[in-house]
Amino acid sequence: MHITCTELPLKDRSHKTVISGEPGQRSDLGVKNASPEAGGRHKLATIMFSDICGFTKLMGEDEKRAMQVVEYNREIHQRCLRHHNGVLIKEMGDGLLASFESAHDAVRCAGEIMEEVREAGICELHMGIHLGDIIFTKEDIYGDGVNIASRLNNLARAGEILMSHEVWKIISNPPEFSTQYLGQRVLKNVARPIKMYKLLVSGEKAKFELSTVYYGNKKTILTVLSISLVFLVALVVYYRSPLAKRFLPDDIQTIAIIPFENRTNNGEYE
Fold this sequence. Notes:
Layout: E1 41-52, H1 55-61, H2 63-83, E2 86-92, E3 95-100, H3 103-120, E4 125-136, E5 141-142, H4 144-155, E6 161-164, H5 165-171, E7 178-185, E8 194-200, H6 210-216, H7 218-240, H8 242-247
Parallel strand pairs: 4-6
Antiparallel strand pairs: 1-3, 1-4, 2-3, 4-5, 6-8, 7-8
Helix pairs in contact: 1-2, 2-3
């Protein structure tokens, strides 16, 4: 997948909230008419989380360099979000949270950001994407969908973009993107198991990973291991029990073999 990004001037480089609904800018989340009693407005949206890998270590080693990386990362996200109709919700240190109306736009944006970061070689990112029912308020967004996107982001390794099944089933038809199924995981504070997929960027090939085999066939593997363990324990208990002695003969003849000692002076017998 190769996507180019049109350069646009950066209008917002501050950490203040911008009351705007324009793509790429922080916004009031489009809930000016949402009543406090309603607790915000529910909306189906695709959420994207991203973080800079190793930022805490970098901050401890070179604070000035770390802040330059944050600024660089912010500029890339703002530019690509505008290009793909995304809205920057908020920044959390080295992390960014964005919202999209289209799952295709979200995945295209994430892939483009990752490609540009790799080419620049300034930092590494890991990202998570999920589609769900989100509660939008004037200050923030809430809901199980936000939590799932955050958990996927935390599970992603350096340079990885993980997405949920809800995102994958939309972008897989037509097959514009290359993905790899990573199995089903139980995420913290999420009631149901989540199927995970990895977005393959810049011609990246799917890799065999033991964790993928495990999480892709978790139920089967655990069932086989459980049955094997139960059988082994039962076998040990049986042979140590008095019941086993009733069926095993007492006069079993055995032969003991000990090493031979050469007591001659002939070395050929060694």
